[in-house]
Amino acid sequence: MPQETAKILYNAVVKNGYYKIGLTCDPAYENANAGQFVTLKITDRMEPLLRRPFSIHKLIKTEDVVTGLEILYRVVGGFTAQLSERKENETVDLLGPLGHGFSVPTNLARPVLVAGGIGVAPIVFLSERLGESGVSLSNVPVFLGGRSKSDILCKEDFSRQGLFMAISTDDGSYGKKGLVTELLETWLEDHTPDMIYACGPHGLLHAVAEIAKKNQIPCEVSIETLMACGLGVCMGCAVKTEDYSEGYRHICKDGPVFDASVLKF
């Protein structure tokens, strides 16, 4: 995994506290899997001391060669506030790609995507990888949920790729009022997918895992959490699982993507 000084290509407001930042990166990121992440550190700041993890949102290509990557993030604390102030041509320290991403089986034909809020970040990358693998994206639905309209992101990306979108918000300000998992359950009454992929808040992932179990559908979920090292050294991001002798795995090393059936929510 390369550690490098990455130049900022752009750092733009998406909407209401959400930003996207483009960074130069090693061409080896061409082999990154959707669901993998990177960690960043602002090199001319002493605080915060620890690096911060971010999902890979997109790869940036020039003449079919990867020259950069894009991160979608929300300002929620000191580090992301500092990151939002960085300008084009400034630099950050970049380490990655890290972790275990989503699997894309060779016989996959009818996947379903579910994203809550900023959890949409790796789902856009996943939809691109699915298309590259030969999956017909016109047959792929994506269920987007958020607290309000301002938390619904990346509609243009999914529309451009030809995916069917179903949207809900907690307050009813956009799409159907209620939980996105309710939309998923209704859709599953008439459809039988061969995989469910999800990323978002803990409650969303738990609900999706239960829906997948009830309907006997394979399911992979990407867990969002803070990580101290991102390398499996500090043991600070443990998650309880069914299939491991010690009872725990580590999100940064064994995840952040897991088979939902092995997780103890």
Sequence stretches where pLDDT stays below 50 over 5 or more residues? none
Which sequence of SSEs, written as H and E, runs from N to C? Answer: EEEEEEHEEHEHEEHEHEEEHE
Mean pLDDT: 91
How many separate domains make up the residues?
2
CATH topology of the largest domain: Rossmann fold
The count of strands amounts to 16
Strand percentage: 25-35%
The total count of helices amounts to: 6
Walk me through the topology:
Blueprint: E1 3-15, E2 18-24, E3 37-41, E4 52-55, E5 58-62, E6 65-74, H1 78-84, E7 91-98, E8 111-116, H2 120-132, E9 141-146, H3 155-161, E10 164-169, E11 176-177, H4 180-188, E12 195-200, H5 202-215, E13 219-223, E14 238-240, E15 248-250, H6 251-254, E16 257-259
Parallel strand pairs: 8-9, 8-12, 9-10, 10-11, 12-13
Antiparallel strand pairs: 1-2, 1-7, 2-6, 3-4, 3-7, 5-6, 13-16, 14-15
Helix pairs in contact: 4-5
